[in-house]
Automatic annotation (TrEMBL):
The keyword Oxidoreductase applies. Belongs to the short-chain dehydrogenases/reductases (SDR) family. It comes from the Eukaryota. It comes from Lentinula lateritia. This is NAD(P)-binding protein. Keywords: NADP, Oxidoreductase.
Amino acid sequence: MSPSIDNAKCVLVTGATSGIGRALALAIASLPSHPKVIGVGRRKDRLVELTEAGIDAENFDVNADKAATKTFVEEMIKKYPEIDTLVLAAGIQREVHFKKDVDLEAVATEMHVNYFSILAIISFFIPHLLAKSVSGHPCLIAPVTSGLAYVPAPWIANYSASKAALHSLCSSLRVQLEDTSIGVIEISPPLVESELHDAEGTTGALSRFWMPLEEYTKETIEGLQRGVNVVCSGMSKNIYEKFEQPKEQIITEMAKRAATHSQFQEMIVL
C-alpha cells in the first residue's frame, strides 16, 4: 500500500489547466486535510482560473528539454520546500497511421510529453523526496497512465505505447522505493470526458462512450485516499484486474531474486 493523499501537505499537479489534471487539482485542494496545491500548466489564462480557485499556479510546458525541466524542478523545490506529492497528469494524444506518412517529429513529441518528461520530473524530484523520506515523512508519486497501457488502441499506437512505458516505469519505481516512505500510485483512467481528444477531432464521437469527468474524479480521489497501488475505474479497472494485477506478484518475486542471486539470468524464468 502507498501513502494516502490525505497525508499530503503540498501537491504539485502537472497538466492542471485541463481535463483530468485540472479536476484532480481542484478536488485535492478541496480535501478536508487542506493540502497546498500547485497547479502547473502552459495556458496562462487557465492558470489565472486556478489562482482564483485558491491554487498556486505555475507556468511550465512539460515539452521542455532536460536542462529546462531540471531548472523548473529546482525552482519549485526552492519556492515550495514542503512539496511531498507529485500528480503527473500532462499528456497529449495523436493518431498514427502507418499506411500513410508518419510524422516522426510529432511521434517523438508525444512520447516526450507522455513518458520522458514524467521520468525526468520524477528523477529530478527524487533527491528532495528521499530527504523527506529519511525522517519518515510520507511522500507520493502519482503518474497518470491509461487503460490503453494494458490493451492498446491501434489507431493511437504511439499514445498507447507511451502509456505502457509509463505503466512499466511505475511498477519498477514502486519496487525500487519500497524501503522508503515514498509511495507510487498509478492513476489509470478509462475513456474520460476530456479536451485530450480535441486535437484529432474525435471528441464528439467519443463523448457517447466516455465516463463523466465528475464521476471519474470522485472515484480517483477515493482510490488515492485508500493508498492502493493502482487506481482504476470502468473498463480500465476490468482490464487491469484481468491482465496486469497478476503480474505484481511476479515483479515482486523478480526483485527478491535480484537481491539474493548473484547471476542475473537466474532471476528470469521464461
